């Protein structure tokens, strides 16, 4: 899916640094609160988990908590009460407002920088001028090191949030590693990552791990209603299920017409192993040509993601001898019919081939329609 306004941006949803809400991970929040109250807070945390489950929101929530003096205020005295489990800070407080605006002197955010900043400052309304660079660059990592080298301007913690730690190239990671090897007093590093395996082992080994799992379907439904009250009630449940425990994914799908694309995907799968060729060509041609405002193949990207995710879900359910959730009426019948036409190993093999196909297409900029046709022809051969 495209990213034009920010990291994993979704329209009308507060950015992590401005979002006062955090749901679905009470144990993770309690662990951070208890660690802060203990007085022995580890200097570096790696907050990992799937995309769109609240990792960055939790990181900024914890940063606000510490910068507001929350740990000192809530820590237990000799005979005092237990510390509060939550990390909430009043959105009206000065600390919350400064963090939200990016103006807190003792908080530094390390993330991919925006491309085309000069064009934006010059008044360009080209949405591509708000796309981010591919990597977190070493110059920004050095700024983080300089930030830790100075005294806290407000007398408390100095905190660096790395939003998208997997986006660091090797030089950037090595620069950050120096900070991890010599952690400053009252300095805290919060690394947010959906792909921690891509980080240097030496970075992972110096961090305390905090893993966020997928959100419950009911939580995702509740959040969809909060952030998208305009979405029809009949679409909320399907979007939550397609989102697979990620509110970020569910809302991006809502923005990109993901539910209609999912319906089209099931419609085309129902025709296998011998699809109506003209109908298949027409549908996939329309998907390949539908572009986002930034000029990217948004419908194609979403459709490719939905197809590989659907196949993975079918394979996983069959391996566990379970029935996959039926998101749309009639989907279960389509899945059962296709599953019966080939062995589990054959479906695993075609899922792997299609996943590799989409990856190669992205690298080589292959013809989108032909890639989609090749994927469905591969599925048809497996089901024949």
Explain what you see:
It is a single chain. This protein is α/β, with parallel strands linked by helices and 384 residues long. It folds into two domains: 16-211, P-loop containing nucleotide triphosphate hydrolases (Rossmann fold, 3-Layer(aba) Sandwich), CATH 3.40.50; 256-383. The protein contains 17 helices and five strands. The chain has a five-stranded parallel sheet with strand order 2-3-4-1-5, with helices on both faces. Helix 7 links the parallel strand 3 and strand 4 (187-193). Helix 10 (233-243) packs across helix 11, helix 13 packs antiparallel against helix 17 and helix 16 (344-364) runs antiparallel to helix 17. The longest helix is centred in the last third of the chain and has 22 residues, at 298-319.
Proportion of strand residues: 5-15%
N→C terminal distance: 32 Å
Strand-pairing-aware structural class: alpha/beta
**Number of H- or I-type helical stretches:** 17
Query: Largest sheet at a glance?
Result: 5 strands, parallel
Let me know the CATH homologous superfamily of the largest domain: P-loop containing nucleotide triphosphate hydrolases
Averaged pLDDT: 88
The residue fraction in helices comes out at 40-55%
Q: Which descriptor suits the 3D outline?
A: elongated
Q: How many separate domains?
A: 2
Q: How many distinct beta strands?
A: 5
Please compute the radius of gyration using only Cα atoms.
23 Å
Order of helices and strands: HEHHHEHHEHEHEHHHHHHHHH
Low-confidence blocks of residues: 1-8, 75-84, 117-129
């Amino acid at each position: 899916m495209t990213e034009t306004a920010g990291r994993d941006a979704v329209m009308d949803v507060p950015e992590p640094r401005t979002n006062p809400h955090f749901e679905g991970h009470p144990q993770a929040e309690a662990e951070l609160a208890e660690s802060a109250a203990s007085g022995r807070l580890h200097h570096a945390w790696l907050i990992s988990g799937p995309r769109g489950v609240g990792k960055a929101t939790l990181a900024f929530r914890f940063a606000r908590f510490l910068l507001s003096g929350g740990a000192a205020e809530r820590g237990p005295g000799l005979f005092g009460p237990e510390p509060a489990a939550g990390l909430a800070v009043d959105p009206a407080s000065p600390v919350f407002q400064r963090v939200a605006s990016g103006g807190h002197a003792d908080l530094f955010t390390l993330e991919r920088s925006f491309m085309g900043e000069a064009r934006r400052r010059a008044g360009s309304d080209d949405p591509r001028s708000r796309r981010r660079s591919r990597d977190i660059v070493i110059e920004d990592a050095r700024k983080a090191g300089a930030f830790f080298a100075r005294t806290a301007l407000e007398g408390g913690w100095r905190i660096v949030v790395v939003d998208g730690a997997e986006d660091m190239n090797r030089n950037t990671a090595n620069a950050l590693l120096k900070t991890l090897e010599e952690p400053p007093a009252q300095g805290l590093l919060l690394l947010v990552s959906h792909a921690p395996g891509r980080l240097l082992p030496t970075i992972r080994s110096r961090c305390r791990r905090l893993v966020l799992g997928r959100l419950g379907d009911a939580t995702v439904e509740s959040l969809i209603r909060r952030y998208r009250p305009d979405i029809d009630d009949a679409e909320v449940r399907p979007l939550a299920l397609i989102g697979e425990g990620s509110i970020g994914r569910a809302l991006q799908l809502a923005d990109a017409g993901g539910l209609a694309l999912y319906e089209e995907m099931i419609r085309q799968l129902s025709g296998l192993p011998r699809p109506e060729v003209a109908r298949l060509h027409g549908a996939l041609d329309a998907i390949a040509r539908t572009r986002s405002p930034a000029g990217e193949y948004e419908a194609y990207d979403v459709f490719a993601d939905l197809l590989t995710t659907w196949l993975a879900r079918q394979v996983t359910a069959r391996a566990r001898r379970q029935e996959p959730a039926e998101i749309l009426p009639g989907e279960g019948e389509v899945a059962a019919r296709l599953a019966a036409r080939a062995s589990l190993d054959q479906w695993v093999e075609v899922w792997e081939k299609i996943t590799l196909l989409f990856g190669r297409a992205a690298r080589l900029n292959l013809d989108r329609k032909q890639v989609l046709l090749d994927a469905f022809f591969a599925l048809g051969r497996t089901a024949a």
